[in-house]
Amino acid sequence: MRSFRRNCSGQVLVLAALAIALIISSTMVYVFQMAEAQSLGHPSSSDDYVRTVKLSTRNLVIGSLADISYGGNTTTLGTNLERWCSFVENQYYLGKSHVSFALCERSPYSSGLRLFWGTAGFGVTSAKVDFSMGLTDETTEMSAFYSVNVTTSIYVSGVHQEYSPNWYAVNVTIHVNNEWEPALAKNFTVYHESETGWQNSGLLSGYYSEDFGNGTYRASFVCQNFVNDVSVRLYDWREIFVQANATCA
User: Fold this and answer.
1) How far is CA 194 from the centre of its chain?
2) What is the distance between the alpha carbons of residues 114 and 109, in angstroms, rounded to a whole number?
3) DSSP string spanning 165-180?
4) Which residues contact 60 (CB under 8 A, 6 or more apart)?
5) Which CATH number applies to 154-247?
6) Where are the domains of the chain?
7) 82-128 pLDDT, tens per residue?
8) Is residue 137 packed enough to be buried (19+ CB in 10 Å), middle (13-18) or exposed (0-12)?
9) Cα 25 to Cα 17: distance, rounded to the nearest angstrom
């Protein structure tokens, strides 16, 4: 089967980079405001600070993974987290703060990432990072350990039937998951392989797609010279890209 090549335009990469910058900026401002409130005697606690950092860290991992899935450098995750940890340590005004992270290296992850866009109907884009955080002030000494796992995966299957010479009716089913639970897609594109190469199924006059509202989607179309294989390119609502190819039954 011929490989299906993604074609990310420069405009898409710029927009993705901008989205990452906005996410980083918003989370930094949030933590800064929380720390400032603590220094002014507001009733926020160290626990509040830890919860804020956890939430902001997750947002940063999501944004970094989206950028990488668009075609960004795989080192983006580690680079962003290094800057983020340094920022968090400098914003805890009640005492000392220490934050460290470890990119998951346990199979199937490498450098915190799992990017598997397979040919057997399964594709996954995932990041996993372990964090350690310590806070020390006049009244508190606490440690927190937590992991962040962000995963977008799809399962693709298809059936086809030849109803006249060289004309095929094809049905493709797509299941979308976030963290292994049913999730919604922002958009997806279905391709089919013909004798002349990969074709965008959505451009066919009879193309039809259906959203079942539970993370399951179906696309139907009629095409010529079909050679059994389909490919789905999908973005979830977090802008994370994932792809999978499948051979139709």
Assistant:
1) 30
2) 5
3) TTEEEEEEEEEEEETT
4) 23, 24, 27, 80, 81, 84
5) 2.60.40.1930
6) 154-247
7) 988 888 888 777 778 889 999 999 999 999 999 999 999 999 999 99
8) middle
9) 12
